[in-house]
Amino acid sequence: MEKQDAVAALAALAQETRLEVFRMLVRAGPEGATPGALSDALDIAPPTLSFHLKELKGAGLLSVRRDGRSLHYAPDFAAMRRLVSYLSDQCCQGVSTPDARKRRT
Predict the structure, then answer these.
(1) Residues 21-33: tens digit of each pLDDT
(2) Residues 75/26, Cβ–Cβ less than 8 Å
(3) Fewer Cβ neighbours under 10 Å: the N or C end of the chain?
(4) To 10 degrees, what angle do helices 16-28 and 35-42 make?
(5) Domain over 3-87 is classified CATH 3.40.50.720
(6) Tell me, what DSSP letter sits at residue 15?
């Protein structure tokens, strides 16, 4: 994952409603959920929800599929794994932090 992609994903998630929508979609799993189900469950007005879904999709965190007249939004689990990997890929590379120094003494 490139830095700008990580920044876009984190920026999209750094908003309370979008984080709540994304977490609900993660709970729903690969099948995802329809905007109507999300709107009802989270008590979010459809136009507001539409805006937040667009932001999450634009950040590469959601996929959308059409089933007849219904849309199903689902988390892009591969993108989520890439983001977590990007955030943790240099974990514990020997950098001495103040907390690590305190534990050694």
Answers:
(1) 999 999 999 999 9
(2) yes
(3) C
(4) 120
(5) no
(6) S
